[in-house]
Design brief:
The protein is of the alpha/beta class. The chain has twelve helices and 20 strands. Strand 4, helix 6 and strand 5 form a beta-alpha-beta unit. The N and C termini lie far apart (about 45 Å).
């Protein structure tokens, strides 16, 4: 082996050792203090050492400078010795701020900075928030995975129940199996047990009651010890205020989130217009996956460059709404075999975008093409901007937004020319700008935004739930500061 090759191996082993030391501290901070440790918005909680290495390498590529594991480990050790409030601490952002500060003592500097989010200044929520999933389909199961994976951090929200249509008791085993195994997203990271006698699932030790109903107003949640619950309705069946309002007729129900576009209720894209919600907004729609993908990108483009008008074309993975083979369907073309065809269909994303961004009303059109892939979609935004720009300026704008802005958990950006849809399965952002596909000619810009229309959208739903329940962790450093 050459000296250079030996040096590379030694460097890898040194970085691997740093990651192996970092991971247990991250886990301890999460379980003991409900502190989430992340790098540019990507959580390190529950990650293997090699994944922590990958996260740092990807962050370095995006930041344009090294995000070093040795600095992350030193910062985490400082956090471990402090009593912090319920916060999300971004090691990548802290490292960049330390370098810009001129200080030479990272530990001392970090202690001084983190004092702003000590437990006496950032109190913990007084009681856990109860959550109920009404429906257990694609989105319901992914939201359940997210909720269960986060329960260990101070137990500030708990999945208490899942509501299904009445059926045979033995079908619970099948539903548990669908939760545990997923053809797209892989196996559930944990344990799943079925308590047939009590009709419950025990997921990573969390007892989740299974309830049955045909209508949203048929249940008494208080009979199961559930109080003031956020009901996440992922059936898509009751989309207007009257239908969604049936949930609130149930004792123990507090607020309702619909995981589909709503009619006559606020349609919210978390990160963009969630601040418009007040305590009296009990019925809220999380809009659609496509709306969540495009609205953050449109919002920041409009702020930076202005948008005069544009067209949105969605290349969308097929869904359960389509037929596997040709058969009758109430909508045009969707009856043709989904795995065999590209299918032109409609989308309400352009109209929905204007609901979240009123300044764009009447400026956007939209259409969609369903394609033979099971997950990850692509929005193509063909826009006329308010001023001339360049590919470099547009991409640099998105890079900065993805690194450090109020939208950094909504917007990601690719740093590889070889990205394809399957690479983005499991990406937690609402949308991912493909920097290598950006086109600009004067004021005309074409921006390609990928999105995991299942997982990324489910993450947005959970963020909205946290906001409604008042259990969103404080972010440190504050985005954009």
């Amino acid at each position: 082996m050459t000296d250079f090759a030996s040096q590379q191996l030694v460097q890898w082993q040194e970085r691997e050792a740093l990651a192996e030391a970092l991971v247990p501290i991250v886990g301890s901070l999460y379980r003991r203090q409900a502190v989430v440790t992340e790098v540019f918005g990507v959580s390190l909680v529950g990650k293997a050492p090699v994944t922590a290495l990958q996260i740092h390498d990807q962050a370095s590529a995006k930041a344009g400078q090294p995000i070093r594991l040795v600095e992350s480990l030193e910062l985490a050790r400082v956090m471990e010795r402090m009593e912090l409030g319920r916060v999300r601490v971004d090691l990548g952002k802290l490292a960049l701020r330390f370098r810009a500060s001129g200080s030479t003592d990272l530990s001392a500097w970090a202690r001084e900075q983190l004092a702003a989010v000590s437990r006496d200044k950032v109190p913990m929520p007084s009681a856990p928030q109860d959550v109920v999933l009404y429906g257990f389909g694609r989105i319901g199961r992914l939201v359940a995975r997210l909720l269960i994976s986060k329960t260990g951090g101070g137990d500030k929200y708990r999945l208490r129940a899942i509501v299904l249509r009445p059926g045979k008791a033995e079908l619970l085993e099948r539903r548990a199996s669908l939760f545990e195994r997923d053809s797209v997203h892989g196996p559930f990271e944990g344990t799943v047990r079925v308590d047939a006698e009590r009709e419950a699932l025990i997921l990573n030790g969390n007892y989740v009651q299974i309830l049955y109903a045909n209508e949203p107003n048929e249940l008494d949640y208080t009979a199961h010890g559930i109080q003031n619950a956020v009901i996440i309705d992922n059936t898509g069946k009751w989309r207007d205020a009257a239908g969604m309002g049936k949930h609130l007729e149930c004792p123990g129900a507090g607020r309702v989130i619909l995981t589909a576009p709503g009619k006559g209720v606020p349609n919210i894209v978390f990160g963009v217009n969630h601040h418009t919600l007040g305590p009296d907004d009990k019925l809220v729609s999380a809009a659609s996956c496509t709306t969540n993908a495009i609205v953050p990108a449109l919002a920041t483009l409009d702020e930076a460059f202005g948008i005069e008008h544009g067209h949105l074309e969605t290349v969308h993975a097929y869904t359960n709404d389509q037929n596997l083979i040709d058969n009758f369907h109430k909508k045009d073309r969707r009856g043709r075999g989904a795995p065999l065809n590209m299918v032109i269909t409609s989308t309400g994303a352009a109209t929905a975008a204007a609901l979240a961004l009123p300044q764009l009303a009447g400026k956007l059109t939209g259409n969609a093409i369903r394609v033979p892939t099971p997950n990850v979609s692509l929005a193509i935004m063909n826009l006329t901007l308010g001023r001339e720009t360049s590919v470099e300026e547009v991409n640099e704008h998105f890079r900065k937004v993805s690194l450090d802005s109020p939208l950094h958990t909504q917007i990601d950006i690719t740093t590889s020319p070889e990205i394809v849809s399957s690479d983005l399965v499991g990406n937690a952002h609402a949308g991912i700008v493909d920097s290598f596909a950006t086109l600009v000619n004067g004021r005309n810009a074409v921006v390609y935004v990928w999105y995991d229309n299942e997982f990324g959208y489910s993450c947005q739903v959970v963020r909205l739930m946290q906001h409604l329940a008042g259990v969103s962790p404080v972010r440190f450093p504050a985005p954009g500061t």
